[in-house]
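Item description
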Amino acid sequence: MPNRYCRDELIAIALNMVLLPNLEVHDMPDGIVMPDAFCIRWLQDILDFWYHLCPFSATVNKVSLNCTANNDKVILPADFIIDVRNGYLVQTKVGDVSSMRRILRVPLQKFINRQISSQSIGGTILHPYVYSVVGDDGVDVTQYQTMLITPTPTINTIGQLWYYKLPPVLSAYTKPKFPDDYACIEYLRIRALEWAHIYEPGTAHKFCNKIVADMKSAGLMNEPEDDEIPMDELTFTKGNVYTNSYSWMGPR
């Protein structure tokens, strides 16, 4: 949910609170926030920091993300923080847009076991069944995170990914998507006083950690879960009992 104040309004409020002439001359002369203002970088940095530590209060996004034939690695979007649990959907029938299915996100240890057990699968593999988010793409310029899938499809497979994304770069009139304006304004105020050597270095960081603790206690660091205990599909195969809770009684 967007906040009430845009980027430049947040900065103006904070600078008016600290009354530091040198900082105001650099960041906001004549009441206009400059493109090279220190406060712009401070605000962007702290939003990125909070989003990384509290991704589940961030913006959820959906993108097309396909699997390439005979390739077990999928490059994730540049603004990717973490996936929505089991949020990768793949097409299970070629050309059938209504055959999308969620596959399971598993820890790397389980993924390796599944990958080993998938070695014996022969013939055409239409889609993967599990995935695991691992390191980056190995390219220094990008360093995009990657996702491993198994079994490796032998054809190009249509896919979609739901994930929590980094905040966009703020413009002058952008309203940050963050639980409240107060945290942003207070951080800028403390950071400005640090810059002026009035507060000790690290004071702003302590405030950030307090905000994270408050968000955690409010449940904002927890991924929304199902309202029932899901069946472990890696251990138990779906059957009639799962799809029809009365099947144990036998035919009518």
Remarks:
- The first strand starts at residue 59 and ends at 64.
- The radius of gyration is 24 Å.
- Residues 38-53 form the longest helix (16 residues).
- The chain has seven helices and seven strands.
